[in-house]
Amino acid sequence: MDIDLSKLKGKYIYLEFLQPHHKETLRDIAKDERIWEGNRGFILNKTFDEQFDRYFATALDNNAMGGQQAFVMHKTSDDSIIGMTRFLNIDIKDKRLEIGYTWYIPAVWGKVYNKECKLLLLQYTFEELSFNRAQFNVAGQNIRSQKAVEKIGGVKEGVLRKYGYRNDGSLKDNVIFSIINDEWPVKKEKLNQLIIENENV
């Protein structure tokens, strides 16, 4: 699936395709344990570098995760990298995809960046790809991310109980949210309003 990056640039954030040269910058900023409290994406111990190498290799593989494209997210103000996100489980036939594996450095939590990023990704999903559905799959223990998805308009569809294991070996539930194309005009208006409200935060 060809993606036009010019459509993924906003006032505060822009997305770039993940590339090998991003690896060490991302490794460095991913060492903040606060990022992984909710989902245990990484365990910050002596195996961190091995964990990160596997994670990064998978993120670069566009055939992984049911078909994917990983992005790094930059602040427009200084071009600094503030996190990662992906389109994954891309199903062109059934016109659906998932937005996930999203993480940010704590310095930007609660600010305008996640709202604008989701606006750009959802706008692309519904207005450029003409897809019917965007899904969000959030770990049951990751309450902060669940609240963030609800805030941008995600509709909670259900909980997949004991769906798998986190990297620390603990069981996890997965909470499924979605936004569909019928809802998008109203959700888009809400997201734009959230961005305005968070511009000076």
Structural description of this entry:
The protein has helices spanning 23-29, 48-60, 112-128, 143-151, 184-198, and strands at 13-17, 69-75, 81-91, 96-104, 133-139, 155-165, 171-180. The protein is α+β, with helices and mostly antiparallel strands. It has one domain (5-198): 3-Layer(aba) Sandwich (Aminopeptidase). A seven-stranded mixed sheet has the order 1-2-3-4-5-7-6, sandwiched between helices. A hairpin with a 4-residue loop joins strand 3 and strand 4. The longest helix is centred in the middle third of the chain and has 17 residues, at 112-128. The radius of gyration is 16 Å and the shape is globular. The mean pLDDT is 94.
